[in-house]
Amino acid sequence: MRYRQWAPExxxxxxxxxxxxxxxxxxxxxxxxxxxxxxxxxxxxxxxxRIRGRDAIVVGLAPRSGAPPVWMxxxxxxxxxxxxxxxxxxxxxxxxxxxxxxxxxxxxxxPSEVTANARxxxxxxxxxxxxVPALERWTPQFPRELAGSWAGPPERGxxxxxxxxxxxxxxxxxEFVGSPRILLYGFDFEHVAENDPDPGTKRKKLxxxxxxxxxxxxxxxxxxxxxxxxxxLSPYVPxxxx
Length: 242
Hints:
alpha/beta; sialyltransferase cstii, chain A; 8 helices; 8 strands; about 15% strand
């Protein structure tokens, strides 16, 4: 999905949550200052090279989901790309899996994301209006390949493939770079972690994330499926009516 298709939905999200675009812009400018120069060059091409048109496993952070049971998938000539959302990197590493990409706005267990980066994962750091302190603290600590994203139009070396939360941004990324099939693992739009400091806002964000993925399922080119921990695969069925 291209930015022009995605932008109207994000405008809706901005109005729904009251995100000031000026703060988004300021955060993106700070991220540009913090990223090393190579991270701002050819970001889309580098990400595309990581995926190479393979199927993608997109790993979310649903409560108690653990690492994806990749041994349950049929063997293929090209193994699927592993794209993880934020703190799901910790679960994957614990299961012996090194992600191809980590999509993060730096609000999870970030040391595991730094570790994944050190082991070869490309980390896509997302700037938004209220994460500048995290950008400043953590961006310089990633030792290897980085890229940056934000909520506005692709510019200044930052990308925007679409999506709202880390999980659905990862799915949008996979669709954008040509994955024909996307397996969503560890996605739960109903339940909030017991230790979440603001469960009301979290539920609202989960509802928006579901709506965003419904849009991708309707208008994107990839076939999207949900993958349960028991190995069950089922088509992703849009629920929202837009």
